[in-house]
Structures are given as C-alpha cells and as structure tokens.
Design goal:
Structural class: mainly beta
Strand content: 35-45%
Radius of gyration: 18 Å
Function: Also involved in hydrogenase metallocenter assembly, probably by participating in the nickel insertion step. This function in hydrogenase biosynthesis requires chaperone activity and the presence of the metal-binding domain, but not PPIase activity.
Order of helices and strands: EEEHEEEEEEH
Distance between the termini: 31 Å
Largest sheet: 5 strands, antiparallel
EC number: 5.2.1.8
Number of strands: 9
Shape: elongated
Number of helices: 2
CATH architecture of the largest domain: Roll
CATH class of the largest domain: Alpha Beta
InterPro entries: PPIase_dom_sf, PPIase_FKBP_dom
Number of domains: 2
Keywords: Chaperone, Cytoplasm, Isomerase, Rotamase
Organism: Rheinheimera riviphila
Helix content: under 10%
C-alpha cells in the first residue's frame, strides 16, 4: 500500500540542522500519523506521498518550507504566570503559552519577577532542516481516525 490521503503511516525519523542531530525516533517509538490531515509539515506530506513500506527518504527543507524565517519583531512581554512547562524559568528555556491561535512554543529571552520577555519564533525558525525518514508501515485509516483527524494506537495520539 502506498502513502496517500487517509492512510496511517508509521515511520522512524531523524531531524538534523547544520549543527547536527536534533531529534531521532530511533531510541523510542516510531512516529505514527494520519496522512493528508495537516499533522505534518505540508512539504513532508508531499514528499512522503506514494512512498511505501521499506522506503527511505532524505528531505532537506529550507526555512520557507519548514518553520519560517526568524522574525526580529517576535519578542513579546508576557506575565510569568502564563508560562507553562516548568516551575523555575531561565533564559533559553522553551515555554508554552496559550494564545488565541492555540498553544505556542516560545523561548525565554529575559525573565523577571512578574514579566518575561519571550521570543515567539518557532525554536526551529530560520533553520534549514534535514529529515531522514524510514517508512515502517502503511495502512488504511479507520473511520474513527479519519473523523478525529489523527492516528490512534502505538505512537499515535492518546485521548485523555
């Protein structure tokens, strides 16, 4: 079976930038996702379309195809109490902030008693990224998975 709209894909991946490996699924569970439902970057979905079990793919994405260019006007001031993810904050740490567009990852630039300056650029913005994929399994999605818009099962989304 080939990867296409409404297939559930199981794959191992490695993510690198110009400085080396950032992330790898090799030591943990493979990634499971539902194809064609914006669960992956569009450029990744496009590159994986029509691949099948056993295929490998090396994909280099410029910032424009990945997480965008860094914006210099992206420093914002937020109340420390709105930062999620840790008890004590230091510059350089990544926090999650709820916004009108949903949760966003931000990087702490400066931390005060009550206010923090955060960089709202995605942590990988401005980077050219190399993805290495190995397709382990492709199956038709269930009606429930299609209705929910994501894969279920090992490595998939778990409802809480």
């Amino acid at each position: 079976m080939k990867i296409s709209q409404n297939t559930v894909v199981q794959l191992h991946y490695k993510l690198s930038d110009e400085n080396g490996l950032l992330e790898s699924s090799a030591q943990s569970e493979p990634l499971l996702y539902l194809h064609g439902h914006q669960n992956m970057l569009p450029a990744i979905e496009a590159a994986l379309t029509d691949k099948t079990i056993g295929d490998t793919l090396d994909l280099v994405l410029t910032p424009g195809d990945a997480y965008g260019e860094r914006r210099d006007d992206a420093i914002q001031s937020v109340m420390v109490k709105h930062l999620q993810g840790a008890k004590k904050w230091k510059a350089g740490m990544t926090a999650v902030v709820e916004t009108e567009q949903g949760p966003r990852q931000v990087t702490i630039v400066k931390i005060g008693m009550f206010k923090a300056e955060v960089d709202t650029n995605h942590p990988l913005a401005g980077k050219t990224l190399t993805f290495n994929f190995e397709v382990l399994d492709v199956r038709a999605a269930s009606d429930e998975e299609i209705a929910h818009g994501h894969a279920h099962g090992v490595g998939g989304h778990h409802h809480h």
